[in-house]
Amino acid sequence: MKTKGIDLQIGLILFLSLTLGMGNLLVVCANPSKNPVNPTAKPDSKLDPKAESAAKLLERGTAYIRLGNLPKAIATFRLAIQKNPNLTAAHYNLGLALAQTRQIRQAITAFETVIKLDPQFSLAHSNLGASQLQSGKFDLAISSLNQAIKIDPRLAIAHYNLGLALAAKKDLDGAIFSLRRALQLTPDLPETNYNLALLLQQKGELVEAIALYRRAVELEKNYTEAYFNLGAALMLQADLPNYPAKSSNLDSAVTSLQRAIQLRKDYANAYYVLGVALSRQSKSSEAIQSFNQAQVLFNQQKNFTWAEATTKQIQRLREK
């Protein structure tokens, strides 16, 4: 769209942060009533893991994850599985740990094993789908996530990841439907609000998208991408014919974009769009400063196409 000589291609710089949800650790054994474990326990380095039971190894592995020691957790879960190959919780937590360390193929194998041991374990189907989505296997992901929802229709994380998988397949209507369902089940997750807003913005439903972006930053005060896209959406709305609150929207857009830059100093796209917003407010000097910063960052990031576009914006402003 063009305004005051500025060619703003907001649609090309939407920050698509489709963050996968994986769910919580399973911190109980196959029979929790008989074999409870303590999810907050710390591993005892004096113990010999080879002498421990599978249940104790599961507990130790879970403690390692809570301490952030994923390699140690993975090794401990594998020892538990050696002791008891049918210990569902060990396979499941192993899958989560592998997914967190981006060992996606191995994570998929772990979740598939869980499903063989417990075909009705909805979270295992959900996390298998999430892992398949991460590996680009969108059709398999959709199938796994639908199975999770069939088992547990109220599993919000499965609806959420299904929305992401459908979005990856360019099924915007299906993705929006799934994310709406996830939002109904868990309305206070900023990622769900944000990703639903992104899809609605792509369809031109700006009023609802803006409301969802605002909800996302209300829930997560440091949500950089949500501030950026809120600013972009407000500018798109201000550009609508006969929109009555153009000035107010531009003020709000500038505030949102400045907040995004405050949170991420190297956010080239935010500097660029801020430059456009400032130019629309006839603040040419400030706009040029913002464009100059965007240009430096685009060049540093070797994004020469946008660096060239930024140069043109600066030239247009200086020619006025």
Describe the structure.
The chain starts with a strand and ends with a helix. It has a two-stranded antiparallel sheet. Helix 5 runs antiparallel to helix 6. It is built from 15 helices and 2 strands. The chain is mostly helical. A hairpin with a 2-residue loop joins strand 1 and strand 2 (6-7). The model is unreliable at 1-20 and 25-47 (pLDDT under 50).
Any chance you could write out the topology, listing elements then pairs?
Blueprint (H helix, E strand, L loop, with lengths): L1 E2 L2 E2 L46 H13 L3 H14 L4 H13 L3 H14 L4 H13 L3 H14 L4 H13 L3 H14 L4 H13 L3 H14 L4 H15 L7 H18 L4 H13 L3 H17 L3 H15 L2
Antiparallel strand pairs: 1-2
Helix pairs in contact: 1-2, 1-3, 2-3, 3-4, 4-5, 5-6, 5-7, 6-7, 7-8, 8-9, 9-10, 10-11, 11-12, 11-13, 12-13, 13-14, 14-15
Brief overview, please?
With 320 residues, the chain is mainly α.
Strand content: under 5%
The coarse overall form would be elongated
Count of helical stretches: 15
How many beta strands in the DSSP annotation? 2
Fraction of helical residues: 55-70%
Biggest sheet, in brief? 2 strands, antiparallel
End-to-end separation: 19 Å
Mean pLDDT: 86
Low-confidence stretches: 1-20, 25-47
Structural class call reads: mainly alpha
**SSE string:** EEHHHHHHHHHHHHHHH
Give Rg in angstroms.
24 Å
Which strands sit side by side, in order, in the main sheet? 1-2
